[in-house]
TrEMBL record:
Residues of the signal peptide: none
Gene3D superfamilies in alphabetical order: N-(1-d-carboxylethyl)-l-norvaline Dehydrogenase, domain 2 (1.10.1040.10), NAD(P)-binding Rossmann-like Domain (3.40.50.720)
Site (Important for catalytic activity): 140
Residue ranges of domain 3-hydroxyacyl-CoA dehydrogenase NAD binding in the record: 5-183
Keywords from the UniProt entry: NAD, Oxidoreductase
Organism whose genome encodes this protein: Paraburkholderia steynii
GO molecular function, one term: NAD+ binding
Protein name: 3-hydroxybutyryl-CoA dehydrogenase
GO biological process, one term: fatty acid metabolic process
Binding residue positions for NAD(+): 10-15, 33, 92, 97, 119, 143, 274
Residues that bind CoA: 49, 56, 119
Domain 3-hydroxyacyl-CoA dehydrogenase C-terminal: 186-282
């Protein structure tokens, strides 16, 4: 890519992960968030993550500081004006994303690709919020972004092939692997992954086995890196419930109904790692 500046809006878990991998790959990255505290937290997460890599001798201390040096933080949308791609990675809420996309759209040129990192919101619907929907695409990263090598690219109805090529090029440049999925609820990966986790929650609720044994079973019996309930805690139970609800409402098929225990956990505020309590305690 000739223009090595990108923008990322949102300094949370997904946003700061994307910033880290892009800056490590040599991009100048503008990380935007409305809150100074969020920017500080994002930057400090990146610093800690890079420091771990230094300790493990995967990168040098110079590479760490060069990566950090390529990151600029801001709360001002006009700072995104020189970016070739701007990725919106804010909270998973269609109204908030729409507002942010409008602000991005007003700050960049017509050639800039605008992307959204979403686990379940329609790309075609979000594309309609920007003035040039042909240049809009879904870039679905996986958590933790520095570790997970996949980026699912989702073309909406209006996305043109040039935009898909720019996104593929970007994904390859940051050392990740792309798959292309249609704009359909859950896209490809969450359509499969989230119902699998939901089924594990049904299994727990029905007393089939303990949480530990369900996880041990899937880990050892199906060679997953962690069990589905531990993964639920990593993803966040509120996020999982939302994706499962999107699948259920979109397909109107009872096979996608959220496990009642998942709803109960979310109602109780047991959201997984981020709240200190999910299927396990943290
Ligand atoms: N940032 C950077 N590096 C991290 C990290 C983080 N947040 N978390 C773990 N790592 C690194 C560790 O440093 C370690 O590196 P090393 O192998 O070089 O020493 C490596 O990952 C393994 O970590 P650990 O030994 O601490 O622990 P695990 O072996 O359990 O691995 C894991 C952690 C990589 C998260 C692994 O458990 C895993 O792959 N889990 C599944 C993750 C997954 O499926 N994610 C997708 C979620 S779905 C999603 O995001 C989509 C959304 O739309 C819902």
């Amino acid at each position: 890519m000739s223009n090595k500046t990108i923008g990322v809006v949102g300094a949370g878990t997904m946003g700061n992960g994307i910033v880290q991998v892009a800056a490590a790959a040599g991009f100048n990255v503008v990380m935007l968030d409305v809150s100074d505290a969020a920017l500080e937290r994002g930057l400090s997460t990146i610093g800690n993550s890079l420091e771990r890599l230094v300790q493990k001798e995967k990168i040098s201390a110079e590479e760490k500081s060069a990566t950090l040096g390529r990151i600029k933080t801001t709360a001002t949308y006009s700072d995104l004006s020189s970016a070739s791609i701007v990725i919106e990675a804010a909270t998973e809420n269609a109204d908030i994303k729409a507002k942010i996309l409008k602000s991005i759209d007003e700050s960049v040129g017509s050639a800039t690709v605008i992307a959204t990192n979403t686990s379940s919101i329609s790309i075609t619907r979000l594309a309609s919020k920007v003035s040039n929907p042909n240049r809009f695409i879904g870039t679905h990263f996986f958590n933790p972004v520095p570790v997970m090598t996949l980026v699912e690219l989702i073309a909406g109805l209006q996305t043109d092939s040039l935009t898909l090529d720019v996104a593929k090029d970007f994904v390859a440049t940051i050392g990740k692997t792309a798959i292309v999925a249609k704009n359909s609820p859950g896209f490809a990966v969450n359509r499969i992954l989230v119902p699998m986790i939901n089924e594990a929650i049904f299994a727990l609720q029905e007393g089939l086995a303990s949480a530990e044994d369900i996880d041990k079973g899937v880990k050892l019996g199906a060679n997953h890196p962690i069990g589905p309930l531990a993964l639920a805690d990593l993803i966040g139970l509120d996020t999982l419930l939302m994706v499962q609800e999107v699948l259920s409402a979109s397909f109107n098929d009872s096979k996608y109904r959220p496990a009642p225990l998942l709803q109960e956990m979310v109602d109780a505020g047991y959201l997984g790692r981020k709240s200190g309590q999910g299927f396990y305690r943290y």
